[in-house]
Amino acid sequence: MNMSCLPNSHTDNVLIGVLLTQVLSEGQVQPGQCAFYEECGKNPSIENPLIPPIVPCLSYTPARALKGAHYLKLKSVCPMLDRGENATLACCSIKQLRSLELSLTLSKAVLIRCPSCAENFAHLHCINTCSPNQTQTVNVTETRNVTYMGTNVKVVLGYQAYLSTAFAEGSFKSCQNVRIPATGGFAISTMCGRYGAKLCTAQRWYDFQGDSSNGLAPLDIDFKLIPPGVTAGVPAGMVPYNGRTLRCNETTPTGGEVCSCQDCQESCPLMPPPVMPAGPFRLMGTDGFLVISILLLCLLLVAFLLYLLVSCWVKPLIDPSEVSCTDKNSLAAQEFLGSLFQSWGTLMASHPLKVLLAAAIVVAVFATGLMYIELTTDPVQLWSAPNSRARKEKDFHDKYFDPFFRTNQLILTAPGRKGHIYDSLLFGRQNFSGILEKDLLTQLLALQTRIQFWSSDLNRTATLKDVCFAPLNPSNPGMTDCAVNSLLQYFQNNVTNLDAKVNMTELGVTKEVDWRDHFIYCVNSPLSFKDITDLGMSCMADYGAPVFPFLAVGGYENEDFTNAEALILTFSLNNYNRDDPRFKVALEWEQIFLNIVQEYQRDPSNNFTFAYMAERSLEDEINRTTSEDIPIFMISYLVIFIYIAVALGEYTSFKRILVDSKFLVGLGGILVVGCSVLASMGFYAWIGIPSSLIILQVVPFLVLAVGADNIFIFVLEHQRDVRRLGETREMQIGRVLGNVAPSMLLCSVSESICFFLGALSTMPAVKSFALYAALAVLMDFLLQMTAFVALLSLDARRQDSNRCELVCCVRVGTRRPMKPNEGLLMPLMRKYYAPVLLHPVSRVVVVGIPTYFVTTKGFNFTSAAGMDAVCSSVGCDQFSLTQKIQYATEYPELSYLAVPANSWVDDFIDWLNPGSKCCRLYTLGSETGNFCPATAWVCGKRCIKAPANGVVRPTVEQFNRFLPDFLGNRPDLQCPKGGLGAYDKAVIRDESGEIIATRFMAYHTSLTNSQEFTKALEKTRELAHNITMGMREVPGTAPDFEVFPYTVTYAFYEQYLTIVPEGLFNISLCLLPTFVVCCLLLGMDLRSGLLNLFTIIMITVDTVGIMTLWGIDYNAVALINLVTAVGISVEFVSHLTRSFALSIQLTHIERAKEATATMGSAVLAGVAMTNLPGIIVLAFAKAQLIQIFFFRLNLIITLLGMAHGLIFLPVLLSYFGTEKHLCDGQTRCFLCPHHPTTVQYTVR
């Protein structure tokens, strides 16, 4: 990128003159004296250069006065040396100026964004090549005799260039922050060798420019940077060049504007620092919420103690005149419901076979809808609402742009494998970790090339090239066009390059250099087309793009890449619509990829430890939780079934075990649950509402918990009851059902309405779950009121006949006892648990997670104002789209953006700039006037003329004419600004040529959890809104024009922005019917309804608290389980509340004891003991989703339900329960809440 670099014509009379005046000994150091002049062919010592290494002839001669074309060319290329025609002296010929111009064109392609930087860069090489005082700044150190054009000449192969540190540092500083929009990185990183942008200094920058091994410098230049006043080491007569450099915020003498803020920090406006987020709420030096919670707890305890004191001294009597309308309604409601269900139960029990047949027909009709069931497995469709902002933005992006490419990644480590020390000739002693061994890299290369398979969709063998993302050759990709990123791409996936080694001499020391030297260089300079070793290999991937080190290795600290502990292999595949046959091919490729990796993983001879994922892995994992863990669920249901079958039995004597068992009743209860789920799924399949795997896993579990409770309440009540005189079996079953069915109705209706209201959720997974659960619970209740009553009637008939279960023809002689059977739990609860729990002392103790910025239609990119509002190079608005993103990246801890956005507008402007050779036109042949690529040599015309101020802005006609050429131009060394690969799919135009969608790609910081993903989404949306408001101020912009951020994860994490209010809304909707239904079915008993609601709220709140302590994230799956928790809590609470409200005992404590013993035992047996065995089995599931959100969360819900329903609620009712109780249909008893001695009886 310096000196003369490209061949020109041939020697002429000037060369002859040079040869005649050439001095073969060291020339005199004096002003006006040249050290070399004219071109003398190529450098014979450079092998495999990237551009022709043209070197000058040694010539200690006076500087020449320039005139005519020679002077005009100098004025154009090196204006800083211009002193006027005939007054300008120089040490370069016109051919050297042409070669220098072409050489500088390469650097200008990346530096022209900042005119002062480009000017300073040209200044240096103009001084070295053309300065009239060349011998004062240049000291030739290496020459060689060569034959050029038939003449023996001496050429310069190396020299020392003396520069003042002020000039060197000023030039370096002006270029230090110039960006490459396509990568978001710095241009200096491509010009500093192995040091990259971070470690680059002025000396290292110049050293790279003067290193002929980089493939760009035609000869070796040893830059000597001399501080002011220092003479040591400076040859006599030499004067370090100390010309004036331009600061990046200065205009250039040729009229160039100041550099933009993105390329020059000095040009940035003064910006107030961003407002830092508020710190945690604190009081008295500790967590403020904790302090408030403690204070509220203390106030609550004080209020409770005051209540106890008042209740001990005040002993009110309840007069019969105080009987309220509510009390009368409560009794009437119970009598009405009881008689209704009694009649219904008697009817069902009297015709069991007909009822079972009718129920089976109804279920079968509903279940036939399963033929049309549609399972949703796409995570986006599951968790992102179709009308949500993220989903709309995703649909917009996918409509105009290709879907986000599919990522398949393999991370390999070699734990325990020892590393080694490598003594590099160029880089010194380096420690290489155990994973960075050649044999492992060879194995990785073999693994990388194995994947191929027969595709029925393509009717041929498919390989990576059929589905790969090939940015630089998308139309007809070969294997080397596929975007595969790994360490092996530093060797172009070529084993010959990996095996290459050569002896190299540096500073008199000769050593062998091999793949390790190339690796060290490439990870520090990934954009290099040639390393500085004698290997001379490129660092660019075989598909033409750079491989940044974070894409190749992992597990390193502070950019110490040779100590990396992991190799990263990433395959990028095209993403197709699901109805495209290529989508299936991509899925097949990914499956083969996973199979091969798993095969390697199982092979004991391999040296790697694998971590891997495919794009399909998330969807596969969702499917795997069903397929792989189905046996776990089956075992769970089997355990529950065995428990129900055993626990429902009476077991009055050993001889009657087979008679008194309830195996078939338990099986029938399970079938009722299964049929209710099938009916629900079939119905919704009929009407086209899709299901999901979560529904298949959660809804049966939920309905089983609800249904088993009702089964236990009904069966245990039947077992505890004694048939009355003259009462038939069917009448007894009807009477028992009349006693318990209102309670079952209370819970089932509450839960069903709860879930139906939950369907108002905007989250598709929550909505569909709520719909399926609501209907399943309702169907379960209806089947229990019909089929299960009939089944119990048949079983009672068998039991009355003393026939054995399963073997009905066998009778047992021992007759059934006529006394009621309380079972095991009820006596324990009545004699021990309830008295201890409701003891005066114990009563008091208990109450206590890359992003695109996408633009929509309605913005005029073709106008100068439109370009200025988007770009970030010279002449652009300081608050443009890309500039605002740049400002945000300066505070990554707040914006969650790490790298500025790439910008096709900026690179298009640079591509058009006549200072580069990117956009030119053919001037000969049939293509005359058409676009001519930089690699062609017959393009004599620039696309546009150079503007006086250096600010390139095409006209509307030029914009529309050359934009397609830019987007289709493949970037290369001659023109790195070509848009193919980086931008060809980033600009969408309609038939008229109007731009209707574009995107600008930035990068987030490393996001590791849902909180960070959510904050990143929130902050990028804020930034995009700010950009939108600014761009709408550009004349001609449509009022509905918008800029929005998009990345593939936003659709998943948007739920976290609203999940707290969404969760509160859904749970509140679920809580509402539990209160309303409880009040209605208890005859407008508000107090019981409130106590019932309060306990359910406590269970829900405590569940959320323990979720945090146990590391269970609050997300949509957790919300589904919290909605489920409300439903299950109803089972733990409502039965007990109703039993207390209807108890005829005299005091609150006695009523609470009775409710705990009778209904509490049924709840314990039916809900808690039914759930717990099945939940514990889920702990053995392999899927993390099952372990966390089903095992942990359901265990929490069940245990908290037990604690609140069987401990807290009885105590709460004993203090605050309703004062009334019902003796029977004719007698109403009134009592003081806590003093049984003050009781009055009134008979009506």
From TrEMBL:
Keywords: Disulfide bond, Glycoprotein, Membrane, Signal, Transmembrane, Transmembrane helix, Transport. The chain crosses the membrane at residues 289-310, 355-373, 630-651, 663-687, 693-716, 736-763, 769-794, 832-853, 1063-1083, 1090-1110, 1116-1136, 1157-1181, 1193-1216. GO terms for cellular component: endomembrane system; plasma membrane. One of its GO terms (molecular function) is cholesterol binding. It catalyses: cholesterol(in) = cholesterol(out). The keyword Metal-binding does not apply. It is found in: Membrane. GO terms for biological process: cholesterol homeostasis; cholesterol transport; intestinal cholesterol absorption; lipid metabolic process. Its main location: membrane. It is a multi-pass membrane protein. Residues 629-794 form the SSD domain. It comes from the Eukaryota. Belongs to the patched family. This is SSD domain-containing protein. It comes from Gadus morhua. The lineage of its organism: Eukaryota, Metazoa, Chordata, Craniata, Vertebrata.
